Amino acid sequence: MSSRLTPLLTLACSLALAPLLSAAQPAAGSGTPEQKLAALGLKLPPTSKPVANYVPAVRSGSLVFLAGHISRGADGKVIAGKVPRDLTEKEANEAARQTALALLATLKQEIGDLSKVKRIVRVSGYVNAMPEFTAHPQVMNGCSDLLVAVFGEKGKHARAALGMGSLPLNCAVEIDMIVEVE
């Protein structure tokens, strides 16, 4: 066989086999939100009861407004402290990721199935920070990155990342969210 034909034959075989190979393997990032969470090794935590006169979620038309959720570890204990005095930026980023999981647990309780999410519309994040700390967006990326990993393009959202002088129970992070659903 001519050495000139080898690249052409390789290309022809690749083009002919591509549809068969892609049909045999699921697309990267495919699956339900719950399957994506499992693939990431994550579980939704139990939802918590409100401790004051409010509800954790309100549905109005196709929008679900989720109340502020504070940072709690997988054990349910409050992740507390000021960034960067008591927690590093990385630890606060993880606290925001944990808070996103709690928000998703509440959302699932409200709508029954996370596959009903049409779009994460807005996320507001509050970071318990020392006055000199200015990396609030990097902390909130813990939440935002998880939402995009779970929902793909539907997980991209408008966002505010704000520093606070104090938060309830001295928590590191508090986050609320607005979601469009079916």
What does the model show?
With 182 residues, the chain is an alpha+beta fold. The chain has a single domain (33-181), classed as 2-Layer Sandwich (60s Ribosomal Protein L30, Chain: A). Helices cover 36% and strands 22% of the residues. It contains 4 helices and 5 strands. A 5-stranded mixed beta sheet has the order 1-2-5-3-4, with helices on one face. Helix 3 (89-111) packs across helix 4. It starts with a helix and ends with a strand.
Summarize the structure.
The protein has 182 residues and is α+β, with helices and mostly antiparallel strands. Helix content is 36%, strand content 22%.
Overall mean pLDDT stands at 88
The residue ranges in which pLDDT falls below 50 over 5 or more consecutive positions are 5-28
User: Can you identify the CATH superfamily?
Assistant: RutC-like
CATH architecture: 2-Layer Sandwich
In CATH, what is the class? Alpha Beta
Major β-sheet annotation? 5 strands, mixed
Share in β-strands: 15-25%
| SSE string | HHEEHEHEE
Q: What is the number of strand segments? A: 5
Helix and strand content put the structural class at alpha+beta
Spatially, the strands of the biggest sheet line up as 1-2-5-3-4
> What is the name of the CATH topology?
60s Ribosomal Protein L30, Chain: A
Number of helices: 4
Shape by Cα distribution: globular
Terminus-to-terminus distance:
58 Å
How much helicity do the residues have? 25-40%
Map the helices and strands:
Blueprint: H1 5-24, H2 33-39, E1 57-60, E2 63-70, H3 89-111, E3 117-128, H4 136-151, E4 158-164, E5 173-181
Parallel strand pairs: 3-4
Antiparallel strand pairs: 1-2, 2-5, 3-5
